[in-house]
Automatic annotation (TrEMBL):
GO MF, one example: sequence-specific DNA binding
InterPro entries linked to this entry: Trp_repress, Trp_repressor/repl_initiator, TrpR-like_sf, YecD_YerC
Name used for this protein in its record: Trp operon repressor family
Gene3D superfamilies in the record: TrpR-like (1.10.1270.10)
Length: 103
């Protein structure tokens, strides 16, 4: 964990996020706290991470998401050398993703 990141203000923000109970509550909160572009950038990075885990090429990812190769590279570096945060979340939501794809 990055010691510069761990502050009372960041703890307060993360506690707020952890208090959300539904997708609708997430939309309500994040629409207030983020600009549309910030939220779209975060979701783009998450989609890039998903596609990298599926072993998609940078070209495929760039075409589908509109992400730059620099963004794709940064996400790839996080997947390979980061704190495994993406892996943690993907493991937890995997059953939900499978269900959504079947519906």
């Amino acid at each position: 964990m990055n010691k510069k990141l761990k502050t009372p203000a960041v703890d307060f923000l993360f506690d707020a996020i952890l208090s959300l109970n539904s997708l609708e509550e997430c939309y309500t909160f994040f629409e207030d706290i983020c600009t549309i572009n910030e939220l779209l950038s975060l979701s783009q990075r998450f989609e890039v991470a998903k596609m990298l885990r599926e072993h998609r090429t940078y070209l495929e990812i760039a075409e589908k998401t509109g992400a730059s190769t620099a963004t794709i590279s940064r996400v790839n570096r996080s997947l390979n050398y980061g704190n495994d945060g993406y892996d943690l979340v993907f493991e937890r939501i995997a059953p939900e993703l499978v269900k959504k794809e079947q519906d």
